[in-house]
Structure formats: C-alpha cells, structure tokens
Amino acid sequence: MSALTNAIEILRCFSSARPDLSFADVMALTGKPKSSTSRLLRSLRDCGLLEQDPHTRRYRPGLLTFELGRLHRAHDDLISMAERELREVCARTGHTGYIAVLDGYEQVVLRIVPGSNPLRVVNPPGQRTPALATSNGRAMLARLSDEDIRARVPSTYPKLPRNSPQNFKQAMARLDEIRRTGLSEAADESIEGVGSQGFALKSGETGEMIGIAVSYSVQATTVAERANVRRELTAMAAKLRRLTGDQLDPVITRAQAGTR
Amino acid sequence: MSALTNAIEILRCFSSARPDLSFADVMALTGKPKSSTSRLLRSLRDCGLLEQDPHTRRYRPGLLTFELGRLHRAHDDLISMAERELREVCARTGHTGYIAVLDGYEQVVLRIVPGSNPLRVVNPPGQRTPALATSNGRAMLARLSDEDIRARVPSTYPKLPRNSPQNFKQAMARLDEIRRTGLSEAADESIEGVGSQGFALKSGETGEMIGIAVSYSVQATTVAERANVRRELTAMAAKLRRLTGDQLDPVITRAQAGTR
DNA sequence: ACGTCAGTTCCAAAATTCGGAACCATGTCC
DNA sequence: GGACATGGTTCCGAATTTTGGAACTGACGT
Fold this sequence. Notes:
With 260 residues, the first copy, chain A, is of the alpha+beta class. Helix content of chain A is 45%, strand content 18%. Chain A folds into 2 domains: 3-69, Orthogonal Bundle (Arc Repressor Mutant, subunit A); 72-259, 2-Layer Sandwich (Beta-Lactamase), CATH 3.30.450.40. The first copy, chain A, is built from 10 helices and 8 strands. In chain A, a hairpin with a 6-residue loop joins strand 1 (50-52) and strand 2.
C-alpha cells in the first residue's frame, strides 16, 4: 500500500457525520498500527490537508483541502449554465434547487439554490446520498446502460428509506419509468415530508452528467403546484438540452421500444 | 521524497489563477520526470483528489477535494459567531464582509458576506493574498510577536501593491499603528478603488485567530460613512472579544509602552 | 499512584518509488 | 502521406520509503 493510498484512506474517514476525528478514531477506522497512524497523521497535518485543534487534539480537514475544494469545477460551464436556469425556476416557484453529480452508486450535492419558502437545507453541498434514494440521483442512473447500473449498485442491495426502491428489480422499474417520462420524482424518501422532481443533463460536448432537482415540502404544496414544478422543469430541461447539445441517448429509445 | 510530498506538490500547483493544468503544465511546475508525473497524476485521479476532463485531458481538483473542502471548519464556533455578527454589520452598512485566516505570510479568505451595495466580489472564499496587503491580514500579523512576523515574511520582501508597505520597516510601522489603535485600515491596495477596515479576533479558548474586515468602494463612500464603519467594527470587536474570551495580548501592551 | 490518551522514536525487513528509455495513440500541419 | 507535438504508458534495476512491533514519553484524570 502506497503512502498516498493510506493518506486517502484517512481522508475518507471524514464526512459530514464525522467532521473531526481523534487519533484513536483514525486508528480504529483505518485499522492501522499506532506508529503508522502517527506518521501519516503528522504528514497530513504538516502539508495542510488536515489541521489539528490545539485544545482537543482532534484532526479535521485543513486549509489546503478548503482551498482546493473551492477550485473544484469553479469554471464548469455545464454547472454554471444549469445553475443560472435553476436560479430562475427557484425564484419563480419559491422552492429549493439542487445540482448533484453521480459517484459510483452515490450522488454528491454540488450546488444549492435556496428557495424563498424557507425549507431547512438538510443537504448542504458536499453531502453524499445513495443515488437510488433521490430524484436526481435516479434520473442520472436512468441515463446509464443497464449493465453499468448493475455494476454500480453494491451486490448486497443497500437499505434505503421507506419510499425508495427496496430491491434491484424495483429500482430498475423506477428507472425505466424515468426513461419513459424524462422526469424523476421522489416523495418522503431521504427526508420525511420532503418531495422533489429532477432530471439529468449530459453535455453533448464533454459527456459530463449532472442531476438537477427542485425540492419542496409535500404537505405545503398542492397537486397543482407540483404540476407547475413539473412544467417548469420540463421547460428548463428542454432549454438546457438545447444549449448543451444533450441528445437523449439511444439507450432510452431502446428502453422505450422494449417497454411498449 | 515521499509519495505524499509529491502529491501535495502537484495539488499546490492548482490555484484560482490556474484552476486546471495539462500534463505538461504539471511536469513544468514540479520539474519531475515524465514517468513520475504520469504515475502520480493517475493515482491522484483514481483516488478522486483530481479529475480529468475527458475532452481536453486537463486535470483539475476532484470530487473528494470538494467534499473535504466543505467539511473544513464547518462547525467552527469562532467563525460562525463572527459570521453572525458580521452579517448584521453588513446588513446595516450595505458593505461586503470578509473572514480570513493567516497561513504563513499569506491570508486565505474563508467566508464572504455580500453587501447590498453590489461591489463585485473579487476575493472569493479560498483566495490567497499576501497578508501585508490587506487590512485584516495586517490586523492578524499585528497580533504576533515581532520575531514571529520576521520569520513569516520572506527574506526578500515581496512586491506588494502601490499603497501597501513596500519594505519590512514600513510594514512594522503599520503593524505598530494597528497595535495602538486596535483597528486596521486599507485603501487602494490589492484592488484599485477598494478600501477596507478590519481587526483580528483570537479565541481565548483555542487560540485560533481570524481576521474580520468590511470592504467598500472608496469613491462611493464619504468620510462620515467610513467613520461609521469604524464605529460598527469597534463595537463588533468589543462584543466578539467578550464572547470568545479574547484578551488582547500583553505583546500589545508592551508595544504600546515601547512606542509611547 | 495508576491508567489512559496521544504520541514519538528505533530498527531491520519488505515494499514502493524513481527516472531514463523505449514505445504508443491522437491530432494537426504541410 | 509523413513529420511532429502532445500526452501518455510500460519496463526494470537501483535507491529510497514505508512498515509495524516494541519501548518510551508526557500530559491529564481520578
């Protein structure tokens, strides 16, 4: 195992659930001996990837990670274009907008557009969630080939919230529905009482794919309002697909043909 | 040189001025041979610290850096308390607020509070600037011992903007002034036409230090308005010092005594 | 006084990295 | 079509690092 692999193993121990770790935590999480942990933690601290609270002695991500994190996709055309459009939809509807990317079978929130209806933001940027449990996560998965999806979902199907697909077959059924309708919907999944609608956008130029979703309180919205969100999203999707040269893959055409 | 050191050397090549790099760029910037660069770049990409544009083949910070970056000081009490107060001052005055930390002889912007007077934000979070060229940078330096300051400033004094101190002696004179008045001021330095006032806050509990500043257009503000900002900042400083147990160090008393 | 946490230091064995050279795949220019 | 540039990959022996168990340190807590 290379030093870099070990370093990454330590860095991956940090998450929004565990934003700082003690020496013992790191040892337990990585299973590495004391001396190795000591050396590595020191290197990471010295280079700025981690910092250490002088009082509690706990470690947390450092200034360098902050600086680099700010650089990530800072000049990404696809994202800024999508964000601009999403901002307008959120301003009109008052709901909260999300932009996310797919990583394995999880999605990571990249951008949030807070709505005027103050729905507490529980998914800040950087948040990682199983893609099958969110509307835009499923929208992104739906644009992959069936083999690719199968390869991404862990062999032991993960335990997902109540209203998310509970096994691979249910998941594929929902993805097929998204392929048919072009829009993905969720309600009462990761967060109780919260619903969302989303779609996936794939740049024709770079092949880069992002998920775009609008989120709202299920209780506080009417059926009509949700239909309005659907119209807004469909219009935004059409516009963005035109601007980015996103042609819905032949995969979808095949899937449609198969299910008809 | 360890693999980690090399990895960091590559990561440090990225900055807001150079948010993505080609293979050749990395080779030139690190001076490493082709094979080493290839191996390392691949490792960094595979572990998610970098990603590669499939079209242009250029490298940029990856998803993992984004996730970790979001975790950096996410639950930092000193910063959230300061941000809360700064938000109020910015709402009252309409100016833009900054929170930064010191790293060596540079400062890094951590948080921005946009003002209502839309002054284009040229210093986004993550931005690195010589501390001697900003108001809160100098405010933070002023709270260090003279030896510490001397150790941080490079032996060949850096080329700073017109109105910043042009040599070590001038710099120390400005820091001494900050030590006397407790407030730091800047005008037409890093950015032409922009002025700012700031101070440094140091937690009595953790020893952590941050710089807090308010920034405005010099042309668009009157002397009276700048005096108002001074009053606001002085009041905020007093309140935050009380809340965080920040006692202005004896160093300052000594400096005061020395200059009197 | 005793235990715990958080490290550090040492050392020889084991594993990784290093870098030059050769090779290769694309894309562009003439 | 051929030459050249960019952006890599692969190979291999030598050189350098990393590894992990064990012993030791130092600050707190009770």
